[in-house]
């Protein structure tokens, strides 16, 4: 299956952009009558037939539409500070998109290495990972948000803060896979390379966040964010019939 | 804590190599009387006192030794074909070392992108990840091994093969986190970018392997290998007292 991304697709007809037309006609050598799949990144999977194999503006006709294609049974927001090395953050965007995430919330924290975040490369990485892993839902990359603003952001679900300091709540830290339940929407805040400040942790806890641990290993911030993403997927196992 | 790696350390005295001496004395600005930790990568954590802060051959004296430092309660062999893009494989070595793995077994498979594997860079990545994540056990990077030889390799534990093709055994595929039990030693074989061949899958199954799935997502080979590594860690949750 060849998946193309067209957020602006308006069935029944669509004309691919120059780059994708070239990929479709020159690289994949598809001709009129050939089939491709297109997603709008909002869950719609369009099966299309090529009506004009023009290598610069390939036109297709939607022959069938599948809504909510492989919709995740849960919502997951991964909130993490962009890493000092941009490659590490882009790596996270790619891997978490493959595993399954609803939105990325880049955090500007007290110990953040970067206070400016250019989303362009990240957006490209997310789109490429979505297409490569044949997903019809494209994770949202939110703008860099100050920590407190991110904590106060309305969110329908449970909110967790993962940090390396000793627990600051009387309940102590829960192990994410033990506390998260199937189907629950979750926002997981991951500490930056210098971890969250005690004030940040207390502010989150005072605003309804739950303290969690991802285990006893010392993980890099981008590794921790991906581990949390995998843990959320393990809490929502595939249906037997899908295996 | 500053962790140094010295596979050849012979207590009570040890002299750091030129690079680590420079890091210790010039970069960290540690002086005689200062403390550092050294691991031999075999589970021993040595707390050492600097006796000679020579920036080219810093000498230390072991003041205390902790054996089996943070030993994993399970053994995990991750067997995967080196990716076409070496960075992706090195990324896996780093991340899986952080999360926890016993040994990496690079596979030479029917659909492998690479039939030659130079371990030097990978070894460096593993050592750096071990030190960065403060581990005293260094994962072993085995040589590139032909698939059938890898299947026939003696292994004390359960052996799993993860592939994207329909199940080829009457039992079908199990979901790794459902079938793996805490404390079990496991070897997980991950399909290459072109997946395992039907013959390879059948050969593994005929030799005691169990078919597994890591879920319904379509994961890149290096992502799948890391996901399996995280799943094994989730199956072996931390003790309450460690949280």
From TrEMBL, chains A, B:
Keywords: Cytoplasm, Methyltransferase, rRNA processing, S-adenosyl-L-methionine, Transferase. One of its GO terms (molecular function) is rRNA (uridine-N3-)-methyltransferase activity. It comes from the Bacteria. GO terms for biological process: rRNA base methylation. Its EC number is 2.1.1.193. Coiled coil: none annotated. It catalyses: uridine(1498) in 16S rRNA + S-adenosyl-L-methionine = N(3)-methyluridine(1498) in 16S rRNA + S-adenosyl-L-homocysteine + H(+). Residues 17-62 form the Ribosomal RNA small subunit methyltransferase E PUA-like domain. GO terms for cellular component: cytoplasm. Pfam families: Methyltrans_RNA, PUA_4. Residues 71-230 form the Ribosomal RNA small subunit methyltransferase E methyltransferase domain. NCBIfam families: RsmE family RNA methyltransferase. Specifically methylates the N3 position of the uracil ring of uridine 1498 (m3U1498) in 16S rRNA. Acts on the fully assembled 30S ribosomal subunit. PANTHER family: 16S RRNA (URACIL(1498)-N(3))-METHYLTRANSFERASE (PTHR30027:SF3), RIBOSOMAL RNA SMALL SUBUNIT METHYLTRANSFERASE E (PTHR30027). This is Ribosomal RNA small subunit methyltransferase E. It comes from Alistipes timonensis JC136.
